[in-house]
């Protein structure tokens, strides 16, 4: 947990944070409403003796009391999908509507992309992209298992993404759930910090900036872009959004979140950020007994 | 007539008369097949397009796309044509099987478990058609489709692909 010392000054109740990071995470699943209603899925779990707790902030997110969430009837039917609780946050913040054109720039293995399709009643176009061909097969497997027919899969570098392949030239909404140093996944993956170093943070932040800029460019004026990571590093979070504010036409907007969280930072390590970055959300593991996450919501503005 | 290009998705022609690629199924034939074989009303597919990529691999899609298009996937695979008997996919059966009224074989819980695990089983009591059936079982008051089974000579063979099989 040594790398986390750099966050001692920005995290309230730092000892509780460290203690939470040492506790393993339980099994969470999302109810996939493409395949069935929330009520019937809960009935199916009850009928098969699988205990669960419904998240207060989102009735479609469940904490399951089973060691093998993949060996349930609801999983076989694609009624539930294993997805960490905080990972279900960015799609809710992006708030896609039926008929929208949505881009998921870093989509594999597809939990959030299929959540978009479900939120859109599987109507509209979800373009799920990933640059890693190996991870595309997991994305396709999940999309088909969950019955998402509104989803198209592409394999390209999101930083230079071309819409020429489609019959439209801009998206209504885009998600940049960026590749990151994954510090917030320490409870799920105890090895997450093994290869941690500040050099890695700085190289990955360059990629994040490139993808977020492209997402803003590819989204129509008045459209929405959500930027999220599963890490705490301000270099990968506020600094990346600040770069988009400096180079593209967009602004940070407020959103409601039914989970405990802290505001985004207005300064870090001698660098100051636009005060609107306080509208972003930092979700820490000790606040809701989840993994860690960062989410910022942007509106694309006129040039 | 040209040949099928396995690298790209082509939208199916509306009817056989509009066919320009040798051996390609038409949208009308696909919808007729689902209606004739499984009793799925043709209106069910009003908002969907059908595509071919690979020899006889048919995909169902609800989003926007030009034809042809070279991407990794478009909606979900739903049907295999270009073989003696057309064969729907497990994922299609799970997604659209609830609308079927014919060739649906209802399994009890133990039989459903065996089916999900990919096992073949003797089910002499089925007196409906032979061939590809939609296997289903009751879950929380609904008849929920499990996937596609091949019924011949008193035996139901599970067609659930290896990666989708589960011991429940």
Protein model, in words:
The complex is a heterodimer of chains A (303) and B (168). Chain A has 303 residues and is an alpha/beta fold. Chain A contains nine helices and 15 strands. In chain A, strands 5, 6, 7, 8, 9, 10, 11, 14 and 15 form a nine-stranded mixed sheet that branches. In chain A, helix 7 runs parallel beside helix 8 (238-247). The longest helix of chain A is centred in the C-terminal third of the chain and has 20 residues, at 198-217. Chain A is globular, with a radius of gyration of 19 Å. The N and C termini of chain A lie far apart (43 Å). By secondary structure, chain B is α+β, with helices and mostly antiparallel strands. Chain B has helices at 27-38, 90-96, 109-116; strands at 10-11, 49-52, 57-61, 73-74, 76-80, 87-88, 104-106, 121-122, 131-139, 142-152, 155-158. In chain B, the strands form two sheets. Chain B has a five-stranded antiparallel sheet with strand order 1-2-3-5-6. The mean pLDDT of chain B is 96. Strand 7 of chain A pairs antiparallel with strand 4 (73-74) of chain B, so a sheet runs across the interface.
State the main characteristics.
heterodimer, A: 303 residues, alpha/beta, Rossmann fold, Alpha-Beta Plaits, 2 domains, nine-stranded mixed beta sheet, four-stranded antiparallel beta sheet, 15 strands, B: 168 residues, alpha+beta, Archaeosine Trna-guanine Transglycosylase, Chain: A, domain 4, five-stranded antiparallel beta sheet, five-stranded mixed beta sheet, 29% strand, elongated, RNA binding (chain A), S-adenosyl-L-methionine (chain A), tRNA (cytidine-5-)-methyltransferase activity (chain A)
Briefly, what CATH class of the largest domain in chain A? Alpha Beta
Radius of gyration of chain A: 19 Å
Proportion of beta-strand residues of chain B: 25-35%
Count of structural domains of chain A: 2
Q: Low-confidence parts of chain A, pLDDT < 50 over ≥5 residues?
A: none
- What is the mean predicted local confidence, pLDDT of chain B? 96
Widest beta sheet: strand line-up of chain B: 1-2-3-5-6
Could you tell me the radius of gyration of chain B in angstroms?
Answer: 17 Å
Query: What is the percent of helical residues of chain A?
Result: 25-40%
């Amino acid at each position: 947990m040594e790398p986390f010392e750099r966050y001692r000054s920005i995290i309230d109740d730092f000892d509780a944070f460290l203690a939470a990071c040492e506790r393993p995470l339980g099994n969470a699943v999302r109810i996939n409403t493409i395949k069935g209603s929330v009520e019937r899925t809960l009935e199916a779990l009850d009928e098969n003796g699988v205990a669960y707790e419904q998240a207060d902030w989102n009735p479609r997110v469940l904490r399951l009391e089973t060691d093998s969430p993949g060996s349930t009837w609801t999983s076989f039917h694609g009624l539930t999908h294993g997805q960490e609780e905080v990972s279900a946050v960015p799609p809710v913040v992006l708030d896609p509507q039926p008929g929208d054109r949505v881009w998921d720039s870093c989509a594999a293995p597809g939990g959030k992309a299929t959540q978009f399709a479900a939120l859109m009643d599987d109507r509209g176009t979800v373009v799920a992209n990933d640059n890693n061909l190996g991870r595309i097969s997991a994305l396709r497997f999940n999309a088909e298992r969950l019955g998402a027919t509104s989803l198209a899969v592409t394999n390209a570098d999101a930083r230079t993404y071309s819409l020429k392949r489609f019959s439209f030239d801009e998206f209504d909404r885009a998600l940049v759930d960026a590749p990151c140093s994954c510090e917030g996944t320490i409870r799920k993956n105890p090895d997450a910090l093994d290869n941690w170093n500040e050099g890695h943070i700085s190289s990955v932040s360059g990629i994040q900036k490139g993808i977020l800029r492209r997402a803003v460019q590819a989204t129509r004026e008045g459209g929405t872009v959500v930027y999220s990571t599963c890490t705490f590093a301000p270099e990968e979070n506020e600094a990346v959004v600040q770069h988009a504010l400096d180079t593209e036409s967009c602004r940070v907007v407020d959103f409601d979140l039914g989970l405990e969280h802290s505001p985004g930072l207005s300064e870090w390590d001698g660098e100051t950020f636009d005060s609107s970055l306080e509208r972003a959300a930092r979700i820490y593991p000790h606040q809701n007994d989840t993994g860690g996450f960062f989410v910022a919501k942007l509106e694309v503005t006129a040039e | 007539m040209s040949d099928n290009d396995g690298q790209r998705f082509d939208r199916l022609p509306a009817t056989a008369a509009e066919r320009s690629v040798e051996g390609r199924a038409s949208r009308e034939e696909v919808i007729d097949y689902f209606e004739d074989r499984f009793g799925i009303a043709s209106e069910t597919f009003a908002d969907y397009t059908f595509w071919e990529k690979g020899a006889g691999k048919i995909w169902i899609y609800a989003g926007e796309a030009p034809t042809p298009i070279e991407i990794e996937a478009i909606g979900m695979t739903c049907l295999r044509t270009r073989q003696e008997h057309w064969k729907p996919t497990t994922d299609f059966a799970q997604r659209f099987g609830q609308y079927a009224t014919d060739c649906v074989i209802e399994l009890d819980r133990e039989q459903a478990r065996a089916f999900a695990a990919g096992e073949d089983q003797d089910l002499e009591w089925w007196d409906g058609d032979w061939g590809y059936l939609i296997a289903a079982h009751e879950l929380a008051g609904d008849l929920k489709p499990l996937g596609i089974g091949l019924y011949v000579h008193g035996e139901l063979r599970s067609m659930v692909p290896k990666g989708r099989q589960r011991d429940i």
